[in-house]
Amino acid sequence: SVPVIGTEIADGADSLDGSVVVLVGSILVSVWAGLGLLDMLQESLNTVWDVRVVDRPPWIQRRLRDVPGALLIAACAVLSGAARWVLADDAATVVRTVAGVVLPVAAGMVAFAGLHLLLCARAVPWRAQLPGAALVGIGWWALQTLGGWFITRYVARSSDTYGVFVVVLGLLSWSYLLGTLYLYGLELSSV
């Protein structure tokens, strides 16, 4: 069950209350912050690949490019967890284990290459991206494995009150580490 919310839903959805304005405002601020992160990745891509400042897109166009980037990251997150959902009990342990490694690595590589395609103002050949994509793919899998360990070790054992804070801090840490990993991959690809 989901901490705090899970127990309230079990008691009945009628027990949930709150402000719609706060919910909508929180979602909008979260989306804006996520787009800001992608905007910084876009600037990093353009800087590393020597795109002149005059050739970079203006602010509004950069923000519009960030939206498909966010959707790509969400799709890759779903792809990286697909082995656990699709192959839950229907496949052999070896198949689940291999898919549990291959799909996250592929998701990380697709995210790296896709963000290059969507965010960089210059076309970067796939061959130049390959070292960084491999690093990000392996790192994506490692972070997913670490995240699974974190959830089973801390989130599942925490109380309803503190579980939400543990999840939020875990997601923030995971996002930070994934962004840092992407920048390391970018640097590796550029040399």
Written account of the structure:
The protein has 191 residues and is an all-alpha fold. α2 runs parallel beside α6. The termini are far apart. Helix content is 80%, strand content 0%. It has six helices and no strands. The chain is globular.
* Helix proportion range: over 70%
Number of helices: 6
Q: Tell me the series of helices and strands, N- to C-terminal.
A: HHHHHH
Structural class: mainly alpha
Largest sheet: none
Total count of strands: 0
| Percentage of β-strand residues | under 5%
* Oligomeric state of this protein: single chain
Shape: globular
Low-confidence residue ranges: none
Query: Which whole number gives the mean pLDDT?
Result: 83
* C-alpha termini separation: 46 Å
> Rg, please?
19 Å
